[in-house]
Amino acid sequence: MIIPEMMQYDSFFFDLDGVVWEAESALPGTVDFINRLHALGKKVYYISNNASRKRKDFIKALNEIGIQAELDTILCAAYSCSLYLHQNYPLNTKVFVIGREGLIDEIKEAGYEVIDGNSYKNTVFAAHRDFLELEVDPDVKAVIAGFTFDFNYTMLSYGSKCIQSGAKLATGNYDHYDRFGKYNAPSCGCIVDALRCASGVQEFENLGKPNTYLLEMICRRDRLDMGKIVVFGDKMATDIKLAKNYSAASVLMMTGAETRESYKKYDFEPDYVYDSMEELLI
Ligand SMILES: [Mg+2]
C-alpha cells in the first residue's frame, strides 16, 4: 500500500536525478514505491532535463534498478527536442546539434538530418581567418543545444553563424548549473546563453522544465485528468516550478538539490516534502 495522500493522484511524473536515483543507484524506497504505483494501475512517467541520453538509455538504466518502463513514458530533453522538431519542421530538415551521442541519436531517429557538432570537437581556431573560412550549411533551419563536455569555440561559431543566417535555437535543458560537492558545475543553459550572446539573437525555445511543453503534450496525448497529476522533484526552480506552472500537485524530495533551508527561499511552495520515498509506503 501507499499513503492516502498519494492514492488520490492518478498520474505520477518523476524527475530522475536526485529523486529516483543518485549516480544511478536507486534512492531508498523509490523502486518499491514506483512498483506499487504500477500494481495499483497508476500512470507513471519520468520527466528529466538530462539531455545527454536518449530514451532507450533511460529505460535500460531503470530496468537495471528493477523498474519496468515503456518508451513513451520517458520524457527527457532529447525527446522534447525531437517532438519540437516534428511540430515545426518537415522530416529530413537539416539541424545543427551540439550535444552528446544520446541527443544526436534521438534526433536522427526522429527523422532529421543532423550536422553533428562533435565533428568539430577537435577543430581549433588559430586566427579569425578560421572563423571567416568556417563554412556553414545554408540549409540548417534549427540549432539544438544540449550538454556536452566537448563544447568549444568552433561549435559556438558554427551554431552562431547558423542562427545569424535565420536558424532557430532550441534546448531541452536551460539549467545553468548542477551542484557537485561544494561547487556549481556549468550546465546546458550556459551553452544556450553562449549561442545567444555570440549570435546577438536572444529568442530561443526552452522545452525543458519548468516550461510545461512536454507535460502539456503528454496530458493531451494520454488524456490525463489534470486534477490528478503529481510531479516529484528535487529542484524548486525546475521541478516544483513546473508543477506550479501547470497547476499540478508537487512533491519535493529532500534526496537531491534542496535542503530544508534552501527551498524556503522561493516565493512558491511544494504541496508535500519528504525525506525519502520510504515515507510513502505503508
Ligand atoms: Mg533532479
Mean pLDDT: 95
> What class, by secondary structure content?
alpha/beta
Quickly count the domains: 2
Percent range of helical residues:
25-40%
Sequence of secondary-structure elements: HEEEHEHEHEHEHEHEEEHEHEHEE
Tally of helical segments: 10
The rounded Rg comes to 20 Å
Q: In CATH's first tier, which class of the largest domain applies?
A: Alpha Beta
What is the overall silhouette? elongated
- What's the architecture of the largest domain, going by CATH? 3-Layer(aba) Sandwich
Approximately what portion of the residues adopt beta-strand conformation? 15-25%
For this structure, the CATH topology of the largest domain is Rossmann fold
**Small molecules (ligands, ions, cofactors) in the structure:** magnesium ion
Strand order of the biggest β-sheet: 5-4-1-13-14-15
N- and C-termini, Cα separation? 5 Å
Uncertain parts: none
What is the number of strand segments?
Answer: 15
Characterization of the model:
It comes from Blepharisma stoltei. It holds the Pfam family Hydrolase_like. Its cofactor is Mg(2+). InterPro entries: HAD-like_sf (IPR036412), HAD-SF_hydro_IIA (IPR006357), HAD_sf (IPR023214). GO terms for molecular function: metal ion binding; phosphatase activity. There is one protein chain. By secondary structure, this protein is an alpha/beta fold. It folds into two domains: 118 residues, HAD superfamily/HAD-like (Rossmann fold), CATH 3.40.50; 122 residues, HAD superfamily/HAD-like (Rossmann fold, 3-Layer(aba) Sandwich), CATH 3.40.50.1000. The chain is built from ten helices and 15 strands. Helix 7 packs across helix 8. The radius of gyration is 20 Å and the shape is elongated. The termini are close together. The mean pLDDT is 95. Bound molecules: magnesium ion (MG). The site of magnesium ion has 7 residues, from loops.
